Each structure stands twice: as C-alpha cells, then as structure tokens.
Amino acid sequence: MFRRSISFCITRFYCQGIAQPLRSRKPKSQSVKAQHFIDFKRIKALGGSGGDGCISFLHLWSNEFAGPDGGDGGHGGHVVLKASMDVKDLTHVLSILKAEPGERGSNKDCNGKNADHFIVNVPIGTVVKNERGKVIADLSEEGLMFVAARGGAGGKGNHFFISDTMQAPEICEYGAKGEQLEYSIELRSMAHIGMIGFPNAGKSTLLRAISRARPKVAPYPFTTLKPHLGMIQYDDYEQIAVADLPGLIPDSHKNKGLGIQFLKHAERCSGLLFVIDVSNENPCDHLDTLKYELSQFSDELIQRPQLIVANKIDIPGAFDNVKILKDSTDIPVIPVSAKIGTNLSELLQEIRRMYDKNK
Ligand SMILES: Nc1nc2c(ncn2[C@@H]2O[C@H](COP(=O)(O)OP(=O)(O)OP(=O)(O)O)[C@@H](O)[C@H]2O)c(=O)[nH]1
Ligand SMILES: [Mg+2]
C-alpha cells in the first residue's frame, strides 16, 4: 500500500501537477438502445388558473346575519424554467408544461390555497426563444430562472366587497386564467470541447476511446447525424464534456451535407478539436476547409482555443503528413490513433491544459 502511494506520488511529480485522465474500470453498457441527445424543444407553458372567490353568508346560532364570509381563491402556479447542473439535456422536458390551479375560496373566510409553481430544470446554457424566434432568456448560470407562464390571480370572495353602502354583497370574482405561451428552448452550451472534422475522420471512434459514450462508428460518411456527448474523467474529479458533432464538408455553409446549423453547439464550447484524418494526401487542405466553414458560421468561433488531432497515424505513410501539418500551422498538433489507442493520454492532458487555461 505504502509502495503504491509512493509510486503514485512519483507519477504525479513527473506529470508536473497536471491532472491525469482516469481509465474507466467499468465495462461499457451492452444495451443496444441508442440514447438520443435532445437539444431543442418546442414547449407550451400553461400557467395555473386562479381559484374562484366564494359567496357565502354566515349564520350563527345567536346571529342569523353574521355577515358575508366568502373567502378568496388561491393564485395559480407559474411555470418556471430553472438552470440546473442536475440535467444534461432536454429529454425530460414535456411539450406541454402545465401548472396547478389555485384552490377555490370557501365559507368562514377560508382563502383557497395558492398552487405550487411548476419548476422545470433545464441544463445550464439553455436559451429560450419566443414564437417569433427572438431570444428572450439565456439561462447561463446555475439557479437562474425564467417565468415562462404566470399563473392567474385568485378571485376575491364576497367578504372582500363589504363596504359602507354594501353590507351584504352577493358578488365575487372568478379566478383569472393563467398565461398560455409557446416557446422554443434550445441548448447551446452542450459541451466544454467540440470536435470538428470531415466525415470519416474518426471523431466518433475518438469519443468512444476517450469516454464511455458509444456513438456509432462505420466506414461511410455522415454516420453521426446528431451530436453525441462523452465525459472525460480526471483524477482530481474534474469532468470535461466533449461533443462529437456531425461532419463538415466543403460548402457546408451552402447547406451541403448536413449544413452548418449544428455548429451552434460549438458556439459556447471553450475549445475546439479539429480531428483530421492524416492518412489522406492533403490534410492541410482539410484544415483550411474546416476553418473556412467555421468562419462562415461565426467569426468569433474561429478565435476559440484550438487543438489539432492528427488521427489514423497507424496507417502507413500517415506520419509524414503529420510533419507537413505541423509545419503549416501554429495550432498544436497531436498525432493519435483513435482505433488503436496510441497517444491518447497525451491528447487528454493537452485537452485538460486547454480547458484549465480558458475556464
Ligand atoms: N486505421 C484507423 N482507422 C480509424 C481510426 N479512427 C477511425 N477509424 C476508422 O474510420 C472510419 C470512420 O470512423 P468514424 O469514427 O465513424 O468517423 P466520424 O468522423 O465519426 O464520421 P462521421 O460520423 O461520418 O462524421 C471507421 O471505419 C473507423 O474504424 C484510426 O485511428 N485508425
Ligand atoms: Mg461519427
């Protein structure tokens, strides 16, 4: 035990304090059920109606006209969206979110109970748009809330309407209807690091190798149609979320292939990984195309911290291309083989350095 802890200390010492990626000891799930990541939903938020007021007159044993005693109705609940670390996507969000109505008022001046607010947790980084597509809320911090639909106010009972001129009012109010509004909610900051690359570059293979995620891998382009997420674990309990995004091709910005709309997921990533298949003859062209397509989506995106993953170095002749790639760019290039697992720990440390720098 003592020797193990010494060797652990020595390893940490040689790694100059950089957190080490952990290897998962648990086998991956054998379930064939694919888990889809839901990052966009249209919702209808229905606030609870207020409870109706009550008309009632109290009769006592000694006082037959003891006065109006109708209580007020309770307020309806609001529908509230709350940014929370506990959820990672929008799968659990129902398309109709309905808050409870307030209770009716009753006799003996009993007011109806206010309904509880219907609070729906959404991941941090959720953006709420109204029916016209205008962004009206950005839940970018833990605990931020957005009231999607206000509940109606409770109606007043007849006790409320007593006045000098009206001692026995036979009127009360109905509870107000809750708001009914439609929104689209969208998850923008899905991951800390986003993987960008051509189809077949090996993004999904790499995500499988560095995390417990199981995106489909196949030797044909556009295998990945929706983003997949994987978590990298480090020995200081830090976790980094990496997103495998669909492939980009030349003219993606003109809606070729799968287009560039999915790049909205990379908008809030703190770093980008360009995954490049170096077994191809001209990896520098691939890099230029990827950068160009990114710049077509947003000029700001291209300024993000970047790393180049030169994948498939196990294929003969690929290593020469790594040198060409390194000479042609200032971005750090890390040669790996996602399929065999070569050099992955160096890549994971480099990802951690990039993440720490831009936290
Ligand atoms: N030899 C070798 N083959 C690899 C390596 N990484 C991925 N591949 C192969 O490349 C093919 C495509 O891999 P994917 O991981 O599906 O590629 P992708 O970038 O996710 O492709 P899309 O989802 O279509 O965008 C598969 O047949 C993989 O087995 C590698 O390091 N070495
Ligand atoms: Mg893929």
Automatic annotation (TrEMBL):
<dbReference type="InterPro" id="IPR036726">
    <property type="entry name" value="GTP1_OBG_dom_sf"/>
</dbReference>
<feature type="domain" description="OBG-type G">
    <location>
        <begin position="191"/>
        <end position="356"/>
    </location>
</feature>
<dbReference type="InterPro" id="IPR045086">
    <property type="entry name" value="OBG_GTPase"/>
</dbReference>
<keyword id="KW-0690">Ribosome biogenesis</keyword>
<protein>
    <submittedName>
        <fullName>Mitochondrial ribosome-associated GTPase 2 isoform X1</fullName>
    </submittedName>
</protein>
<dbReference type="InterPro" id="IPR031167">
    <property type="entry name" value="G_OBG"/>
</dbReference>
<comment type="similarity">
    <text>Belongs to the TRAFAC class OBG-HflX-like GTPase superfamily. OBG GTPase family.</text>
</comment>
<feature type="domain" description="Obg">
    <location>
        <begin position="35"/>
        <end position="190"/>
    </location>
</feature>
<dbReference type="InterPro" id="IPR006169">
    <property type="entry name" value="GTP1_OBG_dom"/>
</dbReference>
<keyword id="KW-0342">GTP-binding</keyword>
<dbReference type="Pfam" id="PF01926">
    <property type="entry name" value="MMR_HSR1"/>
</dbReference>
<dbReference type="Pfam" id="PF01018">
    <property type="entry name" value="GTP1_OBG"/>
</dbReference>
<dbReference type="InterPro" id="IPR006073">
    <property type="entry name" value="GTP-bd"/>
</dbReference>
<keyword id="KW-0547">Nucleotide-binding</keyword>
<dbReference type="InterPro" id="IPR027417">
    <property type="entry name" value="P-loop_NTPase"/>
</dbReference>
<dbReference type="InterPro" id="IPR014100">
    <property type="entry name" value="GTP-bd_Obg/CgtA"/>
</dbReference>
<dbReference type="InterPro" id="IPR005225">
    <property type="entry name" value="Small_GTP-bd"/>
</dbReference>
